[in-house]
Design brief:
The chain has 127 residues and is mainly alpha-helical. It is 80% helix and 0% strand.
Amino acid sequence: MRVILVVLSVILLSAIILIPIFGYNDITRQESIQKNIEKLGTRNWDQAMAELVEIGNVTVKPLLNALKDPNTNYWVRARTVYVLSEFSSEEIEKIFLTLLQDTKTHIQIKFSIVETLGRMKIKECHV
């Protein structure tokens, strides 16, 4: 009986200790993603881009949200296109094409999309 109580106590304590640690890491990662997205509007945007790419696919959804949000600074949105091109997918290409057709999309964002789609197609040809 004592052994069972000890084992259950260890399991419970482990859960109490580990759950906040994993939750904290996720919150920290989300904060890092958001800060790097904001940095895309600064002079050090290339460093922010590299960090977002390094974080990986979890950045795609927040990047798409920033790209689609008309209240986001247009430089952030334009550079978001470059970051998203590193995670090439049909969904991303469709969103790019939709934004190209939208008359409200800022010209700098459209320029980034055209440039990025061209690079993505060249990569496909060489694969």
